[in-house]
Design goal:
Structural class: alpha/beta
Radius of gyration: 19 Å
CATH architecture of the largest domain: 3-Layer(aba) Sandwich
Mean pLDDT: 90
Order of helices and strands: EEEHEEHEHHHEHEHEEHHH
CATH superfamily of the largest domain: P-loop containing nucleotide triphosphate hydrolases
Number of helices: 10
CATH topology of the largest domain: Rossmann fold
Number of domains: 3
Strand content: 15-25%
CATH class of the largest domain: Alpha Beta
Strand order of the largest sheet: 6-7-8-3-9-10
Distance between the termini: 28 Å
Shape: globular
Number of strands: 10
């Protein structure tokens, strides 16, 4: 769990992002504490993944700042950010494995590109990371030979290769069956307990969010509408939060209002 007295590991300050004329993020501010698992929750097109990509400087905002350990990563030289990037691991939605490389080669790639380690050491570290995510014995497999869940685990092993302080997940359960998705959730919890990393998970999967999160950020139309513990979010009276949690389609806002009235009348 996060230390409330600590400085934020990640601080997003008044972030605004446009794609051409369309505003994607609208004055977003958020603090994520060291050792915390923050889930960013919301429907498709709410800006969740865009916010995550700013944390790795894969995108630059129109205005605003992203601070990692107090350093403004949006406005520093690329060479300086490369040092910070080494301590950030990211699992992309599609796992983003290189199809022409074996699983071992995919996981070893950051170590080969970013360190001066000898090849035997890289092979040992690669096996350790694959074992950590439950993929012992698949080093020589090609990505095409893996199931969807195995691809996610291989991508996660690669994200862990450099022993990151921050681990980012973009829709880790996307495209997985419920049992496999639950396995990914368990793996995230295992990593959190073992390494005390700061973890940020973007998802629209409610079941996963409430299992893994210390706190949840709910986004709607490029804005943060609620931040709180899972219980605080579950009990939020914000109509858009309840619409999302109760899977009420657009145009059925009366159902949300009726639900909120029922909570009030029951003394909740």
């Amino acid at each position: 769990m996060a230390n409330d007295a600590a400085e934020p590991m990640i601080r997003v300050a008044d972030l605004v992002t446009h794609y051409d004329e369309r505003r994607i993020l609208n004055h977003v501010s958020l603090e994520i504490m060291p050792g915390e698992t923050m889930v960013i929750l919301g429907g498709s097109g709410t800006g969740k993944s865009t916010l995550l990509r700013h944390m790795t400087r894969l995108e630059i905002p129109t205005s605003g700042h992203v601070y990692i350990k107090g350093q403004d990563v949006c406005h520093m030289p690329e060479e300086q950010f490369n040092q910070i990037r080494r301590k950030i691991g990211m699992l992309f939605q599609s796992a983003a494995l290189f199809n022409s490389m074996t699983v071992q080669e995919n996981v070893a790639l950051p170590l080969r590109e970013l360190t001066q380690l000898e090849e035997p050491t890289i092979r040992i570290m690669t096996r350790i990371k694959l074992d950590l995510v439950g993929l012992s014995g698949v080093e020589r497999f090609m990505p095409a030979q893996l199931s969807g869940g195995m691809k996610k685990r291989a991508g996660l092993a690669r994200a862990l290769a450099m022993d990151p302080e921050i681990l980012l997940f973009d829709e880790p359960s996307a495209g997985l069956d419920p049992i496999t998705a639950a396995g990914i959730d368990s793996l995230i919890l295992k990593l959190k307990m073992a390494f005390r990393m700061t973890i940020v998970v973007v998802t629209h999967e409610l079941a996963s969010a409430f299992v893994i999160a210390d706190r949840i950020t709910v986004m709607h139309e490029g804005e943060i509408i609620v931040v709180g513990t899972p219980e605080e979010v579950r009990n939020s009276r914000h109509p858009r939060v309840q619409q999302f949690l109760n899977r009420v389609p657009e145009g059925n806002e009366r159902d949300v209002k009726a639900y909120l009235r029922s909570l009030t009348e029951s003394g909740f």
